[in-house]
Design brief:
Elements (H helix, E strand, L loop, with lengths): L7 H12 L2 E3 L11 E3 L3 H17 L4 E3 L5 E3 H6 L2 H4 L1 E6 L6 E3 H4 L12 H11 L15 E4 L2 E5 L6 E5 L4 H6 L1 H7 L6 E10 L14 E11 L17 E4 L6 E3 L1 H6 L6 H16 L7 E5 L11 E9 L2 E12 L1 H10 L5 E18 L1 H8 L3 H9 L9 E4 L5 E4 L4 E15 L2 E8 H12 E6 L2 E6 L10 E5 L6 H14 L5 E3 L5 H11 L3 E5 L1 H6 L1 E6 L5 E5 H5 L1
The structure holds one RNA strand of 74 nucleotides.
Length: 558
RNA sequence: GCGGAUAUGGUGAAGUGGUAUCAUAGGAGGUUUCCAACCUUUUGUCGUGGGUUCAACUCCCGCUAUCCGCACCA
């Protein structure tokens, strides 16, 4: 196998374009930065990965799939913190009209300009007046926020409402919490999954598929009761040695259970999801030794996170974050609750109802009201705090600072039994978020094998059978004598079966066709030859070892 | 966003102030009893907009995109 670094990445990218895996979008218009097409081969690959991802999480048994709009009202993303967090503060040089980031300009003059608010940046910028990096002038416009989300208007004209194209799928799932809660009969834990597009108007999209302006994401929002005992079994991964990079520590290996026992992974469900993520990636063909889990530093953690892990994959661009598993606490539901006033709580029933017996004093409203007038409310609070043993008349100091004298006629005994069967709380959320494009890139990167064949590079895509874009390639040995009709018939039979993709190829020599099929990773090539015409058997060639077996057509199509 | 480089058939490349070359690929036909073979034939191109010029793929300028650093982002 040819190793990387000798032009492998260039050959891979060239092949992906030529064979229709991945192509720059809108190519006939010169392309558009940060936008890619999944082509005739890649489109199928993507949909299979999406489906495999959904199936993987639906296994848990308490997961539903949602599909929420990409167009999202301004208020939703303001409440979630994205309007505030997803912006850069820009200023323009009045001499040359070059736009620069205000915090970058101020870096030599302030320890951490990134943390400044807009007004503070503006003040500092105008007092220091740094040189323009391109024209050396020192005359800056006002600082404006440039948001990394795509702006849009929902509706037109004066009735239009400000909105964004979503930067992640998560918010739609949070705002759907009440209906998911009802669906699951108000019993946590449960989760919602969604695969879909997300959009970020990146300043500098780079590195092919790694940083896109429109990207495929897959997210699970898993809602838990922070106080409920957690029933998580990590034994499935007890023999799985995983590479970790944690806060304040160098790279080391351990198991998920050990990492949790050591207090590194705070929540067992986070550990479970890290394990399930590992399983998914390996099922997709990611090489296990090229996976590592990296814990976010405290200052790097996003605005919502309590504990956050990146799953990084090693590929041609180095270690790239492809999945994030974040314990978001109650941040999201609480934010939307505060913004809307709508209940996003769950109910926790006590094992035993809590009974509170109150045996003390309360006010006699008929006398306290007329006597104390505006102070009556404060009197009530003070009276209810008095011990049962209080003798009246009594001097009482109110929260207002006033001191009043309470007569026996102002009070009456207060005997109550309050029974509480449970309480309301805001569920916590654990969120695995997958960058599907990045994962597909690494699947391709890891599956791409080159070998030397008579001085030429021979390419095989060793993709997993479960997600290959094409399941079968059907060839007539020669396109004559009825072999072509028989092959076409078999091809059509395959295509008529749900979930199977077949490709007919009768062009060029048989060896050339095998090579073409290997290049896009077709696991099995089926060839119709002269013998097939007589006994309805065909040869099946294995992609990875080239071995052929002869089987009957019926055994393939049943 | 900054600095540097680049942009020629589907893919990879050469080249020139007078409308372009090679390899490979794709289609059709032939040949061929299974791993990129061969023969015939055919398809298709100078990223984009402007300028200079009798004439621009070539020179100049803008734009767009790509690659490499830096920065940014996750």
């Amino acid at each position: 196998m040819t190793e990387e670094g000798d032009g492998r990445l260039e050959r891979l990218n060239e092949m992906l374009k030529r064979r229709g895996f991945l192509l720059p979008a809108f190519g006939i218009y010169g392309g558009a930065k940060g936008l890619y097409d999944f082509g005739p081969v890649g489109g199928r690959l993507r949909s299979r990965v999406n489906q495999a991802w959904l199936d993987h999480w639906l296994q848990l048994g308490n997961i539903v799939e949602l599909s929420c709009p990409t167009v999202t009202p301004y208020e939703v993303l303001e409440a979630s913190g994205h309007v505030g967090e997803f912006s850069d503060f820009m200023t323009t040089c009045k001499a040359c009209e070059e736009a620069s980031r205000a915090d970058t300009l101020l870096e030599p003059h302030h320890p951490n300009p990134d943390a400044l608010k807009r007004d503070e940046l503006q003040e500092l910028l105008h007092s220091i007046n740094p040189e323009c990096p391109s024209c050396k002038a020192s005359d800056w416009s006002d600082v404006v926020a440039q948001n990394l989300m795509f702006n849009t208007t929902i509706g037109s004209g004066s009735s239009g409402r400000a909105g964004f194209i979503r930067p992640e799928t998560a918010q739609g799932m949070f705002t759907s919490f009440p209906s998911i809660y009802r669906h699951f009969r108000e019993r946590l834990p449960f989760g919602a999954v969604q695969v879909g597009k997300g959009y970020r108007n990146e300043i500098a999209p780079r590195q092919g598929m790694i940083r896109l302006r429109e990207f495929n994401m897959a997210e699970l929002e898993y809602f838990i009761d922070p106080e409920a005992p957690v029933d998580v079994d990590l034994s499935a991964w007890e023999n799985q040695i995983i590479t970790f990079i944690a806060q304040d520590s160098p790279e080391f290996t351990s198991t998920l259970a050990k990492a949790h026992e050591d207090g590194l992974i705070h929540h067992p469900t986070v550990a479970q999801f890290l394990g399930m993520t590992h399983d998914f990636l390996v099922n997709m063909g990611i090489i296990p030794s090229k996976i590592r889990f990296r814990q976010h530093e405290k200052d790097e953690m996003a605005h919502y996170a309590k504990d956050c892990w990146d799953i990084e994959i090693l590929g041609s661009y180095g270690w790239i974050e492809c999945v994030g598993v974040a314990h978001r606490g109650c941040y999201d539901l609480e934010s939307h609750h505060k913004a809307t006033g709508k209940s996003l709580h769950a109910r926790r029933e006590y094992a035993e109802p809590k009974t509170t017996i109150i045996d003390a004093w309360t006010i006699n409203g008929a006398t306290v009201g007329p006597t104390f007038k505006a102070l009556a409310g404060a009197v009530k609070v003070a009276v209810e705090e008095l011990p049962k043993s209080t003798q009246f008349p009594a001097q009482v100091t109110l929260s207002t600072g006033d001191t009043v004298t309470l007569e026996e006629q102002h009070v009456k005994p207060n005997q109550l039994t309050i029974k509480e069967t449970g309480e309301w709380y805001i569920p916590h959320v654990i969120e695995p978020a997958f960058g599907i494009d990045r994962i597909i890139w690494h699947m391709i990167d890891h599956a791409y094998h080159e070998s030397d064949k008579d001085g030429e590079v021979y390419t095989i895509m060793k993709l997993k059978d479960t997600i290959v874009p094409v399941d079968y390639a059907v060839f007539p040995l020669f396109e004559k004598d009825g072999m072509d009709q028989m092959a076409m018939e078999l091809h059509r039979t395959f295509c008529a079966s749900t979930g199977i993709v077949s490709m007919y190829d009768g062009s060029g020599s048989i060896g050339r066709r095998y090579a073409r099929a290997d290049e896009i990773g077709v696991p099995q090539c089926i060839t119709v030859d002269h013998q097939s015409l007589e006994d309805r058997t065909v040869t099946v060639r294995n992609r990875d070892n080239g071995e052929q077996t002869r089987v009957s057509i019926e055994s393939l199509t049943q």
